[in-house]
Specification:
Blueprint lengths: L5 E3 L1 H11 L5 E5 L12 E2 L9 E2 L3 E4 L13 E9 L13 E5 L11 E4 L3 E3 L3 E4 L8 E2 L10 E3 L7 H10 L3 E5 L3 E7 L3 E2 L10 E2 L1 H12 L3 E8 L3 H9 L6 E5 L9 H9 L1 E7 L1 E2 L5 E5 L2 E6 L3 H17 L5 E6 L3 E2 L5 E9 L2 E4 L9 H5 L2 E5 L4 E2 L4 E6 L2
Parallel strand pairs: 1-19, 6-7, 14-17, 14-18, 15-16, 18-22, 20-25, 23-26
Antiparallel strand pairs: 2-13, 3-12, 4-11, 5-7, 5-8, 6-10, 9-10, 19-21, 21-22, 23-29, 24-28, 25-26, 25-27, 27-29
Bound molecules: ligand LQZAQKY5 and molybdate ion (MOO).
Length: 394
């Protein structure tokens, strides 16, 4: 028996990796640089939105009672007493029988409680005729979206474009975010070649490095690119030593059963192993350990396995969030092995999901053509028409 756990579940693998990551300090970051970062604290609104009760349309503001029976045949005739523009409010009060011109986002004056849009008006300069009743529902109340003091954004949320916009709307020029994790990425294998160089038979372009750098950037990590290392323990160690300042070493390849699987032997012989092998398909041979004081997660070399294990284990550990899933009807059969959760590449069509067909771990097109992972827990089979859990990848 090896002196470390083997065949851990996906959840155990996530938890063990998360436990190896350092706690990240908060930093205050200008909002314009914060896209993609993770909020470190809840954000409460500093102001209300809208900041005043305002019009949702271009038209006139008046009292609803004055136009309750207005129609094209019997228009309501009201006296124009002014206008309210966004940024230049009407300071007076709208009395019975009066209206003001008003524009979208402009403050509603006192006395008025309804809006009639320009399409339903005749305007002769001094008076307006409303051809249909002015509507109170076209008034946006102060604080209708959020009120000052309401907690609107939450710690742990990733700042997507809409959340960055929302943080600005709440009134924050800077936001507290988690300082990014620094992740060093290294591909291994004598056969791995950088694109742009000639490829001899038996060699393969280093697709894992590019996929993993992109996946890390997507989760807001700071990436240290280490390129690739040959199947040689001394050279592998030398490359990993270049990862100065990294919080995590992320490698691909060299973790399975072969004699040249040096990432595994490096951890077993020179480090500490938290686990080797996960009850997952694809990606079973993944390994986690510590080498010279740094956590090292070894992804399998097969390109689909590397990216799937990143999505289902590494990304949740880095972000602290389990993958979000949807439930869809299966349009083909799916099954897993008794002791492995399967992540099938699936195609989503018309609200259901079908098997992509080619499920080989070396066929990257299965992920790029079918960026949906159908999750089949250990020992389960799914029939056409059953509901399945699906992770939608970007
Ligand atoms: N006897 C057994 N053999 C294998 C087992 C097993 O249980 N028993 N597991 C298989 C599984 S599952 C996987 S996944 C692979 C994982 O192997 P390694 O992590 O050791 O990866 P390598 O052997 O180094 O490479 C596998 C495959 O991927 C290609 N590769 C590697 N790096 C890259 C890269 N950066 N870019 C593109 N492609 C890459 C490599 O050329 C190989 O074709 O082991 C099975 N074997
Ligand atoms: O998982 Mo390996 O990941 O089946 O090729």
């Amino acid at each position: 028996m090896p002196p470390f756990p083997m065949f851990v579940s996906v959840e155990e693998a996530r938890a063990k990796l998360a436990a190896r990551l350092p706690v990240r300090p908060d930093v205050l970051m200008p909002l314009r640089a914060a896209y993609g970062r993770t909020l470190a604290r809840d954000l409460a609104a500093l102001v209300s939105h809208p900041s005043a009760t305002e019009s949702a349309l271009d038209g006139v503001a008046c009292r609803a009672d004055d136009s309750a029976h207005a129609s094209a045949d019997t228009p309501a005739r009201l006296k124009l007493v002014g206008e309210s523009r966004a940024g230049a409010a009407f300071e007076g009060r709208v009395e019975a029988g009066e209206a003001i011109r008003i524009y979208t986002g402009a403050p509603l004056p006192e006395g008025a409680d309804a809006i009639c849009p320009v399409e339903k008006l005749r305007d002769d300069g001094a008076f307006v005729e409303l051809l249909s009743p002015a509507s109170p529902s076209d008034v946006r109340r102060e604080g209708h979206d959020f009120k000052a003091g309401d907690v609107i954004l939450r710690a742990g949320q990733r700042l997507s474009p809409s959340r960055v916009a929302l943080a600005a709307a709440l009134g924050y020029p800077q936001v507290p975010v988690l300082s990014p994790l620094r992740v060093a990425v290294l591909s291994t294998g004598d056969e791995v070649v950088e694109p742009g160089r000639p490829l001899a038979p038996g060699q393969v372009y280093n697709s894992n490095l590019f996929g993993l750098v992109g996946a890390l950037q997507e989760v807001g990590a700071e990436v240290i690119e280490l390129g690739s290392a040959p199947d040689d323990t001394a050279k592998l160690s030398a490359r990993l030593e270049d990862a100065g300042g990294a919080d995590l070493l992320l490698t691909s390849g060299g973790v399975s059963m072969g004699r040249y699987d040096f990432v595994r032997t490096l951890l077993v012989e020179e480090g500490e192993v938290d686990f080797w092998k996960v009850r997952v398909r694809p990606g079973g041979p993944a390994i986690l350990g510590v080498w010279r004081g740094l956590p090292l997660f070894g992804l399998p070399g097969n390109p689909v396995s590397a990216l799937v294990v990143f999505e289902v284990i590494v990304k949740p550990a880095l972000t602290g969030r389990a993958p979000s899933t949807v439930r869809l009807r299966a349009a083909s059969k799916f099954k897993s092995l008794p002791d492995k959760t399967a992540f099938w590449r699936g195609v989503v069509e018309e609200g259901s999901v079908r098997d992509y067909g080619e499920q080989g771990s070396g066929v990257l097109r299965s992920l790029s053509d079918a960026p949906a992972l159908v999750v089949i827990p250990e020992g389960q089979a799914v029939d056409v028409g059953d509901e399945v859990e699906v992770m939608l990848l970007s």
